[in-house]
């Protein structure tokens, strides 16, 4: 059981590095096949943290620092609120709304390319608030975060590095809150898996980096849009 989870986590780390998001979105549905939901949440949360640290380490020279305070400040605030509300608010409706938003945005981008979000400070702030809330409340705000970051037209490596930096900020907020309010209660054996998860996150991210660098820059945005569309469908059907 543990071996299958770790193998799944490796392939998710590869794919999530290529598209810049998706560790939680892809891994939580797989993790619940091997663990109960609470254990799945904590295992994926820690793996998400390690994967983001690995991406930052590999792509650190490409971070778009201008977006960090604009986007990251709202992420910290709304992620904290979302993580505290996870015990009290139903998440199905929110998941459905954001899933529909993602699907409609991608369809609009494909069939009406002129209909796009403007790369403005206001868009960055709104994106931070939305993705932070989803990260805290659902544990899966990467798709919304990626949509808004993609708006700024960053090159492939800058997009991946900036996305990982913002995701790490959310992780550093939500994990302590989850533990504090008892949403997840990890056992001693869970922490014993941390060294393995660190290694897998790094190796998977390293392979994902090589795959991403083999994707031509002009084809990178379509690849991400396909991933956003699938994430939107995932939100809708999970809702």
Short description:
With 239 residues, the protein is an all-alpha fold. It is built from 11 helices and no strands. The chain has helices spanning 2-19, 23-31, 37-59, 67-85, 92-111, 121-138, 142-150, 156-181, 188-192, 194-213, 217-238.
Would you write up a description of this structure?
- The structure is a single chain.
- The chain has about 240 residues and is mainly α.
- The protein has helices at about 1-20, 25-30, 35-60, 65-85, 90-110, 120-140, 140-150, 155-180, 190, 195-215, 215-239.
- The model has no long low-confidence stretch (mean pLDDT about 80).
SSE order = HHHHHHHHHHH
Helix content: over 70%
Tell how many strands the DSSP assignment holds: 0
Can you tell me the overall shape? globular
Which structural category fits the helices and strands? mainly alpha
Radius of gyration: 16 Å
So what's the oligomer here?
Answer: single chain
Mean pLDDT: 82
The share of residues in extended strands comes to under 5%
Which descriptors would you attach to this protein?
mainly alpha, 239 residues, 11 helices
Layout: helices, strands, pairs:
Elements lengths: L1 H18 L3 H9 L5 H23 L7 H19 L6 H20 L9 H18 L3 H9 L5 H26 L6 H5 L1 H20 L3 H22 L1
Helix pairs in contact: 1-2, 1-10, 2-3, 3-8, 3-10, 4-6, 4-8, 5-11, 6-7, 7-8, 7-11
């Amino acid at each position: 059981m543990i071996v299958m989870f770790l193998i799944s986590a490796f392939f998710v780390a590869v794919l999530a590095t290529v598209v810049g998001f998706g560790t939680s979105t892809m891994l939580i549905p797989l993790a619940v096949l091997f663990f109960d939901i609470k254990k799945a949440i904590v295992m994926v949360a820690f793996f998400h943290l390690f994967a983001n640290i690995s991406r930052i380490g590999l792509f650190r020279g490409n971070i778009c620092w201008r977006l960090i305070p604009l986007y990251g400040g709202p992420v910290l605030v709304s992620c904290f609120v979302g993580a505290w509300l996870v015990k009290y608010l139903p998440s199905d409706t929110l998941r459905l709304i954001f899933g529909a938003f993602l699907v409609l945005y991608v369809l609009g981008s494909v069939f009406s390319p002129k209909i796009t979000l403007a790369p403005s400070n206001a868009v960055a702030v709104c994106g931070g608030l939305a993705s932070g809330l989803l990260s805290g409340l659902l544990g899966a705000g990467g798709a919304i975060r990626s949509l808004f970051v993609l708006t700024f037209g960053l090159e492939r490596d800058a997009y991946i590095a900036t996305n990982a930096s913002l995701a790490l900020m959310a992780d550093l907020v939500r994990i302590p809150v989850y533990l504090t309010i008892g949403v997840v209660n990890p056992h001693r054996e869970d922490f014993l898996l941390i060294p393995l998860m660190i290694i897998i996150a790094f190796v998977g991210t390293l392979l994902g980096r090589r795959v991403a660098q083999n994707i031509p820059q002009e084809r990178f945005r379509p690849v991400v849009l396909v991933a956003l569309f699938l994430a939107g469908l995932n939100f809708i059907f999970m809702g």
